[in-house]
Specification:
2 copies of one chain form a homodimer.
Chain A lengths: L20 H21 L6 H8 L3 H7 L3 H21 L8 H18 L1 H16 L4 H20 L7 H28 L2 H28 L3
Helix pairs in contact in A: 1-2, 1-4, 1-6, 4-6, 4-7, 5-7, 5-9, 6-7, 7-8, 8-9
The structure holds a DNA duplex (18 and 18 nucleotides).
Protein name (chains A, B): Putative transcriptional regulator, TetR family protein
Organism (chains A, B): Ciceribacter naphthalenivorans
Keywords (chains A, B): DNA-binding, Transcription, Transcription regulation
Amino acid sequence: MDDNDQPAPPLPSTRTPGATRKGVETRARIIRGALEALESGGMETLTTRKIAASAGVKLATLHYYFDSKENLLLAVLEDLIADMAEAYRQDMSMPSDPEERIEALIRSMWRYVQRTRNKQLAQTELTLYALRTQGAEWLAARQYNAYIDFYCRLVFHGMGELTEEQRKIGTAIARFMLIGIDGLILQNFALHNNGDTNEGVETLVIATRDLLHRLRSEAGIQPG
Amino acid sequence: MDDNDQPAPPLPSTRTPGATRKGVETRARIIRGALEALESGGMETLTTRKIAASAGVKLATLHYYFDSKENLLLAVLEDLIADMAEAYRQDMSMPSDPEERIEALIRSMWRYVQRTRNKQLAQTELTLYALRTQGAEWLAARQYNAYIDFYCRLVFHGMGELTEEQRKIGTAIARFMLIGIDGLILQNFALHNNGDTNEGVETLVIATRDLLHRLRSEAGIQPG
DNA sequence: GTCTATAGCATGATAGAC
DNA sequence: GTCTATCATGCTATAGAC
């Protein structure tokens, strides 16, 4: 339930050599290149050659930083997790009432998803890849827990500490929001019919607000 | 909104030669073999050789029936769509009240998902593959529309005809259920924590019943 | 730290006997 | 309709100069 601050078995061998200024930059370029190539073509056509080309480095350079394609892909997923928080904070107005925050948060998420369609596809593909990769399943879990933790905090505070009860309720809310957004992403991709999917967003907003209502009154009637 | 009875551009070249009794059987074996191999290893490691081995045929035989790996994979996805209806009807008790049907249906779906974890992963991977494959996006749409149509009918009837209003409400319900189930699948896979995911199922049941309530009263107050 | 060059191999697909 | 044998290609990864 709370394996978010996991021991986190370090990614097997992401080399990260001397860590020169230049080295760090190149490593980042390769990760960005991999994400670009993944967004444009999908996992099926993703090769180390395309990644290297997309990053503007030679194939051997790629292997200097990542000893295998697998570890590079896992590093890309890690990077996506790290970037997530920044992305949402941008265009979100922040009401003080948690119920309105839920609504603002879902709408913000959905705007972000729609303007980064291919990135979402890429992230979904990478998550499935991690689930299929022996010893990398924890990465998928970490990704989800990071999202859950992030949404949970955003529902109740700017980013401060939470009471135990807020954490419990917020986690349930966050989980449900995430379920809805993931389902919406897939359905929107498959039907590429934004009109109908927007109905789904409205329904999700209402359902999540109702859930908060329910959890709060349950907590009020039967505290501890 | 209703491109379910699509012209359906025929799958480019699934050959299907003379269609001998034996030929049809072999074709089916290859499709089953592909699904098996996909379930056990994922798209990343899925090769025509593994498929052939898993189907008990030689590599050349596979290419006699499917002129390319791509068309084989799309045929597998088609097959999954066709099998879907059978799978759910099995263990579902069928109350007469639509609200209770929604609950029974969601629980039945969830049971099915849990006992076919790898099949669901495979189907998700194939759907993403179709979305990435030029000219195959319609297959993903067909898959979703088939599910939506199926759930819609199940909410209101055994399988008979629907009134226009039932169809409209049922479609919205079905879409939302599907959003929830897809999201639940991904979250359950990533966190592999069935206890917490079951909470999500309960929440989805309540939310979907509420949605039906809302749609019905809206229709009652403002018909046509 | 980045490159050129290449090893070593697995892949999707085909030719042609039976 | 199914097989054996093989092709051509593209893959990941490495060796070694600079």
